[in-house]
Amino acid sequence: MPRETSELLREATEHLKKCGITEARFEAEILLAYAWARDRLHLWGYPREQVPPSVETSFRQVVESRGKKYPVAYITGVKEFYGLDFLVNPYVLIPRPETELLVDAVCDWQNKWGYRQKEFFLADLGTGSGVIAVTLARIFSRALVWAVDISREALLVARKNARRHGVDNRITFLEGDFWEAFSDKGLKFDVVVSNPPYVTSEEMDSLPCDVKKYEPSIALNGGDEGIKAYHRILNNLREHVKSPSLTVLEVSPFISDKVRELSLREKGIKKVEVLSDYRGRDRLLKISG
Length: 289
Prior knowledge:
Distance between the termini: 67 Å
Number of strands: 11
Order of helices and strands: EHHHEHHEEHEHEHEEHHHHEHEE
Radius of gyration: 21 Å
CATH topology of the largest domain: Rossmann fold
Shape: elongated
Structural class: alpha/beta
Low-confidence stretches: none
Strand content: 15-25%
Number of helices: 13
Number of domains: 2
CATH architecture of the largest domain: 3-Layer(aba) Sandwich
CATH superfamily of the largest domain: Vaccinia Virus protein VP39
Strand order of the largest sheet: 7-6-5-8-9-11-10
Mean pLDDT: 93
Helix content: 40-55%
């Protein structure tokens, strides 16, 4: 016999709470909306609507998966970033709100130099699902973007997201390890962005279960000190950027000082700023060249 929406949500919320899920009710609503192909607002508006048995079965399955700490975004296959929905799967990191600040930093810079009105070159190193590259290509209609990742599977996701948001004609996807992908291209960029792996090897063990167990370690692990990727980006940065140029790197609050020191050792770098996230923690390194 079909059961009401409110009843199923109540049971799912209780189950998820027992499994240690903090936002149990919110996630239960997301999962029912996904299983039923409905909007969450519909669930709120019709709490006594009867749920078809087939939907209830699917809902129970995804709730069980979430109870085992499998990420919601991987269950639904979609995650919002900067007001846009992006496809995600276990080959790519799930976008975090803090990374939106990287997009904001590029937008602030363009206001000074007027790049919204003219063509410019942008490189996204370690693009993953492509959220940064695609979002910036959407914002700047004349930007030509090169998106690099060492993972072929991640690039497949990024390409799908570029097509999904209508910017695939202005993004070139390259497989490779940061600047190595450009070894024979001779390109110089106005803007470089990257959210590289920066979790230390020691910190990897203390990550939340849903991150440590299911998200790709290649996109998380930054080596013993967390700065391995920054060495590779900064060592060859000057060869690949124009003057003036902007480079924005996401960093962990725990290694921001080390990365800043690395950047200041490089020739041609005029100014380095550390920007904070919503909680006042060091989150971005803004490099002017």
